[in-house]
Amino acid sequence: MTSTETTPTTAPAKKQLTIKVFGVGGCGGNVVSQIHGADFGGAQLIVLNTDSQALAQCALPYKFNLGLKLNGGLGAGGDPERGRAAAEEDEVRLRELCTGVDMVFICAGLGGGTGTGAGPVLARVAKECGALSLAFVTLPFECEGPKRMRQARRGLEEFKSAADGVICLPNQKVFKLIDENTSVIETFSTTNELLAQGVRGIWQLVTRPGFINLDFADLCAVVRNRHSESSFATAEATGPHRAKEVVEKLLTNPLLDGGAALGEADALLVSLMGGPGLTMAEVNRVMEQINRQTENAHLMMGAAIEEGLGDRLTVTLVASRQCSHAADLPKGVEPGQPEPQPASRGGEDFDLLGSAIASKPVTRTAVAKPESERVAVAVAETGMEAMAPAPVATSRSWRSRKKAKAVHPELGLETVTTDPFQQSEPTRHNGVNLDVPTFVRRGMVMN
Amino acid sequence: MLNLFFPEKTTVIVGLEIGTAKVAAVVGEVTDAGGVNVIGIGQCPSRGVRKGEVVNADLAAEDVRNAIVEAEKSADVEIASVYLGVTGGHLTSLNTHGVFTAASDDHEISQPDVNEVLANAKVFSRPSENHVLHAIRQHFTLNGQAGITDPIGMLGGKLELDMHVVHGVTTRLQNPVRVVKGLNLEVEEFVFSGLASSLALLDNEQKQMGVLVVDLGAGTTEYVVYADGVIKHTGILAVGGDHVTNDLSHGLRMAPARAGLLKREHGAATIEGAAGQTLTLTNENGFPDRRVNLEHLRRIMVARLDETFQLIDEDIGEQGFHEQLRAGVCLCGGGARIRDIEKLAEEVFGLPATLGRANAVGGLRSATDDPELATAVGLVKYGAIRQKSQRRVGLVGKLKNLAGSLGLF
User: Do A155 and A72 sit in the same domain of this protein?
Assistant: First the structure.
């Protein structure tokens, strides 16, 4: 069943979600192209890049060249600062793109300039426009050098604080999925495919009805305002023992660190999909095993029937990590950021829950913000509310939320520098910088 | 004499140097015989200065206040005004030439003629933002006869004058002045530090023989060339002891503070006797912490000092001063405390090198013997010279000068 078919048949209620998939930078563009190649209707695919040449090569209809004025369409040169500046230059356009959208997927490869720099800006803009922003990012291969890795790590942190959720795929882990003789092209297309799968999986999750339903609201509950880093894995099995096999495959998946990620996860989203032959016993078996792995996690599951799958059973799993959630807690407390949203929405559209969604206003603010989220995040919130009751009480309106956001607390530590030449101009003599140690300039070896 | 009724207000002269490593204030008094005696010293470690220039005015002001207060206590006087030493990589120097041509060759040279030639020599192309710090008279040439010190009363048609001019960026010169004025102290004059140091160290004989004075400071290294009794050349390198410390901190991979300690304790300007030796450093608990190769330490130091001297040597060599420096090289500043520094200087310059002592002034031996205080002591000496000349000129002379300068415009 192609997605275009799905659109009319599957509850018109849900289909009204507006989803946009952004590919930022070279890698992001590739991923989005890959998504486009697969059957993936219903979502607008947009490619953003600073490099006009790469954009020209991209076959997708919607593309936009970031920071044309700043970089002249020549790319960001691997410098995240330039990527960021480019995105900030075109922030108004990005805002236009994100307005009225419910969900924004951002695909980017971290470590370079555009994806690392511009991606978080887009995530922030999307979030400010009220969309649920989910980032799908790759970390570079270790062989690409420590500098790229450092940039990527920094970019990941920025993504985490800007986007609602980040699903991170370290390329290095992909090595375990492929055999030694895989060509470079295949390797990269594997990682792209994995990201594409992730986007597709989540998209299917929220757009298709199931007999145990998972929808946009549930997803919000798992990711919204957690700024967490999530792992993502999918597995497929056929045959009479498919329920058992699929879980085994999942648990050995290197992307989940061989199942370790499940143990650490504090929120887990499981989506089962099978042909019409899917039995309740199978669903039960899968969930039982996953449950055993994750005792403390807030687990959400959905199951759906997909005609085209035949006797295949696929399980898609998104695990949000506990540690990052814990780290996020104090962050949430200071600006009072997460609370206002459920509060402001809760009153409006209770009936948006689940498949009962009848009509959905175009504005994103009014989107499914059902009780379920309140319950879902309650674990985290109760603590926060106790500590910071003021923001909850006052920040009922959208404006106050913005206001609260602006107050980023700063720890007033004095910067101590022992650089003997700080604030002074370098001593130059005939083009030689004399501040550089003489023995270095003379090439004397000290060991 | 009018001076009886209007005695000189200032009997004490204070030299203040806001250096990179320390702020030093030296109080001197002028004796009846015209000599200078140092009667008080105040010092304070400096924090707001990098490479000889004020980068943090607040810290600098605090340090200056401490030094001044200490100097006031030690000399038991109240300080109202100072002679301020200034330095920095922005200072430039050059020799200029002024010419005055009379109507006929049997013209008797008079004071207005000298004033005119002085004014001529001061006209040279310099960036508009620059301020002339010093314009120092060298020698007059009258009808081709060189080496005349006082041409007034001589006959001649063409009077020429060589001058040495030191100028720098006005705004950067103003920074230390503002710091001092912010403390309600008057700045009598600001003086190039290198010039002040040379005044403290040299006697007239050395100036006549020709000498190179190198002041090895923490942030900057100043040098002055004297020949035939006058200043022929000055220069400044924004390289100093801090650079040595920084090099050691890089090369030996340790904190600058520790590198500075090692530099003072074990540093020398020679590698001799260091081969194969290691130093064992102790941590704060007194336990052995790590080992440092002494030879590396010395080699790093020698490389920097050698380079600094070579840069100076190249500069004065270009001007051809080597033959004129019969009194050799005179070293002062904190860098002069480095062991065997004079040997390295002898090697590089090919001239005899000595450590300078402030022989030109009397008084507290701790001040005059300290190579680090040469600049501040020299500033006192400079002040004494200036006040003496002003006193001698008196009111009549001042009026004359005024008339002369009015005539120029």
Answer: yes
CB contact under 8 A, B303 and A438: yes
Q: Which residues on chain B are in Cβ contact (under 8 Å) with A425?
A: 51, 89
Question: A424 touching B, CB under 8 A?
Answer: yes
DSSP string, B53-122: EES-HHHHHHHHHHHHHHHHHHHT----EEEEEE--TT-EEEEEEEEEE-SSTTPBP-HHHHHHHHHHHT
Please check whether residue A224 lies inside any domain of the structure.
no
Domain containing residue A47: 10-207
- A255-295 pLDDT, tens per residue? 777 667 777 777 777 888 887 777 888 888 888 888 877 77
Based on the domain organization, do A282 and A322 belong to the same domain?
yes
CATH classification at residue A409? 3.30.1330.20
**pLDDT per residue as tens digits for the range A69-80:** 777 777 777 788
Which candidate, B166, B194, B190, places its Cα nearest to that of B331?
B194
* CB pair distance less than 8 Å for B51 and A446: no
Number of independent structural domains in chain A: 2
Token digits of residue B168: 């720098």
Answer yes or no: do A203 and A264 share one domain. no
Both A252 and A147 in one domain: the answer is: no
In a shared domain, residues A113 and A235: no
Which residues in chain B touch residue A423, judged by CB atoms under 8 angstroms apart?
50, 55-56
Whole-number Å distance between alpha carbons of B13 and B383: 6
**For residue A263, what pLDDT is reported?**
73
Q: How far out from the chain centre does Cα B22 lie?
A: 15
Give the range among A161-165, A313-317, A420-424 with minimum mean pLDDT.
A420-424
